[in-house]
Specification:
It is built from 14 helices and 30 strands. Helix 10 links the parallel strand 27 and strand 28. It is globular. It is of the alpha/beta class.
């Protein structure tokens, strides 16, 4: 390795570090989720603003820039042979924010050496890094044989129409890489199949069904509103029940992840589908549709739909249900599959139609074939050899299920910026799309959980007092029985649920848990606190504010008796202090 060159690079990074961070923060600050097309903004105002800002940063570095009719852009460093050029391509659009954020996602924060914010890793941070790479080459006066373009995409997360436009109107690079995946180098991507499973107009018990924020992400929460009596329903794992109007809101709580890597995820839509079927909360038409959805959610390998297969270069097929919603009286479930070379989109369409029968219709099906570049081609060898030289590893190229810009170019790969074994900090938010937020940040206390049983009198007072003292808190009330839940709902909270599983699920995500001291004692509150409830409260990472009520043969000594109003006020004040002071 050229040690002198490495020293120059290190010195350049040190000299520009603060400006690099400021530039990434400036891009993160732009909400560049795809929006409604406008004049001069084919993908919406947000992506256009991010494109403009990126080109502004590049121009400030002394690079030549071009806006390609507002579809895409690039910064360029000149080379001796202008007839050909090399390129990198990043994107500055992002997926919807999703759930799990405890801070403003479009305001970048830094904590313990990590950045956190929507897009810092996918793909605004790498975009800024490529610009600074060109700035280094320019300042060093490096003589290039071919021009290098740092291309700026702004429609990657949805349709990649930016690249489609570019390749129709501009010559393709002789080689291109996108830093939008992982090291060492990805030389193949699975095919992509997307479609919708649509119900008939059922006029049944399901009045609403919603879940998910993106077609290519496993949803961690979903809900259905049904007309039924909550007292007739039974508890189920990862399901909470909330009275709502004349019916019940059934919520599923899963574990999110990307469609390309669904191993270990739990699809919240599938949880709600199973609960509706198990409890007969559907008419015949709805049941037939839900049975079709059950086959989709049965396995991320596609076994339920009969589309499972695998090959050598890519491994097994994957499929997930990403979003569910109502459209003109019909339920619509999107699905996203990444498939290897042993099948194709047409074959999958026929297999899925056979599996779902007449219960659902398969609509808006579209596919993109897998792509693969042999590992011994010159450009792939150059990437992997450079990576191994710098890191001292003996890595080899890999294939993946994710889809990047690389598949659209004649000769391209994805190269960095992440590592598969990267250990992310615990204080970052739950991110639904790859690791696009995983670069650090502070986690603020926001989720306050109030638990009570019996008649819910104490819980009702706690909810009212905490709502007044901490209006910024995200307050949830869980009753051990429906009467307690109803009492707390009347005090003002809009998030409430009932039962053992509701306690268990909400304790996992709470920052502060509040309730009578009996909630940590099995069989307290006249037996309403189950061992599982007590364990969930005690094992939660939350901080607990316990009100010392001397009941149920559990006596707290050393604490003078106080009127219940004073105890409630003291609890609310303590919660206010905790919300204002995040746990270190």
């Amino acid at each position: 390795m050229d040690q002198a060159l490495n020293q120059k690079i290190d010195a350049f990074i040190a000299a520009n570090k603060e400006q690099i961070l400021e530039d990434i923060a400036a891009l993160v600050a732009i909400n560049s989720v795809e929006g409604t097309p406008e004049e001069g903004a084919p993908f919406g105002a947000g992506p256009r603003a991010a494109l403009d800002k990126t080109l502004e940063l590049a121009a400030g570095m002394g690079l030549a820039t071009r806006n390609c009719e507002n579809y895409i852009g690039y910064a360029e460093l000149a080379g001796a042979d202008p007839e050909k050029y090399l390129a990198t391509i990043c994107h500055v659009d992002v997926v919807p924010v999703g759930n799990g954020w405890s801070q403003e996602p479009f305001k970048m924060q830094i904590r313990d050496g990590w950045m956190i914010g929507r897009g810092v890793a996918d793909d605004k941070g790498p975009m800024v890094a490529t610009l600074y790479a060109l700035k280094f080459l320019k300042e060093e006066g490096v003589s290039l044989r071919y021009p290098i373009r740092a291309m700026v995409g702004d429609n990657e997360e949805t349709h990649m129409n930016d690249v489609e436009y570019y390749l129709k109107n501009y010559p393709a690079p002789v080689f291109c890489f996108t830093p939008d995946a992982e090291f060492p180098v990805c030389n193949g991507e699975k095919g992509h199949f997307g479609a919708e499973l649509v119900s008939p107009v059922c006029n049944g018990e399901i009045k609403e069904f919603e879940g998910g924020v993106a077609n290519n992400a496993v949803p961690d929460r979903a809900s259905a509103l049904v007309e039924t009596d909550i007292t007739k329903l039974k508890n189920a794992p990862n399901i909470t029940l909330e009275p709502e109007g004349n019916g019940v809101r059934i919520r599923g709580w899963g574990k999110s992840g990307h469609a390309a890597m669904p191993e270990g995820t739990v699809n919240a839509i599938g949880l709600v589908v199973n609960y509706l079927l198990d409890n007969g909360l559907c008419n015949d038409a709805e049941r037939a549709y839900l049975e079709a959805l059950k086959k989709l959610h049965a396995s991320t390998a596609g076994t339920g739909l009969g589309i499972d297969c695998a090959d050598g270069p890519f491994g097994p097929l994957t499929i997930i249900g990403g979003r569910i919603f109502m459209r003109e009286g019909r339920i619509v479930q999107t699905m996203d599959s990444r498939y290897p070379t042993c099948t194709n989109a047409e074959k999958m369409k026929e297999q899925i139609k056979a599996a779902i029968g007449t219960g659902a219709s398969l609509e808006k099906a579209e596919g993109a074939e897998p792509f693969y570049i042999a590992a011994d081609t010159p450009a792939i060898k150059a990437c992997i050899e450079t990576y191994n030289e710098v890191t001292g590893e003996n890595a080899t190229p890999f294939t993946m299920g994710g889809g990047t810009y690389a598949r659209h170019f004649p000769y391209a790969v994805s190269f960095g910026p992440e590592h598969e074994d990267m250990v992310l900090p615990e204080f970052g938010p739950e991110d639904l799309h790859h690791r696009s937020a995983a670069a650090g940040g502070d986690r603020l206390l926001m989720n306050v959980l109030v638990i009570d049983g019996q008649g819910g009198g104490l819980g009702r007072q706690l909810v009212a007092a905490i709502s007044a003292a901490c209006p910024e808190a995200r307050l949830t009330a869980v009753g051990t029985n429906s009467l307690a839940t109803s009492a707390m709902l009347k005090a003002g909270t809009v998030r409430a649920a009932t039962g053992e599983n509701a306690v268990v699920v909400n304790c996992r995500i709470a920052d502060v848990i509040v309730g009578p001291i009996g909630i940590v004692i099995a069989d307290a509150l006249l037996g309403e606190i189950t061992p599982a409830m007590a364990a969930a409260v005690c094992q939660s990472p939350a901080r607990r504010v316990l009100v010392p009520i001397n009941h149920c043969e559990n006596i707290v000594v050393g604490v003078p008796d106080q009127p219940i109003g004073q105890l409630v006020a003291a609890a609310a004040q303590k919660v206010k202090e905790l919300v204002a002071t995040p746990c270190k």
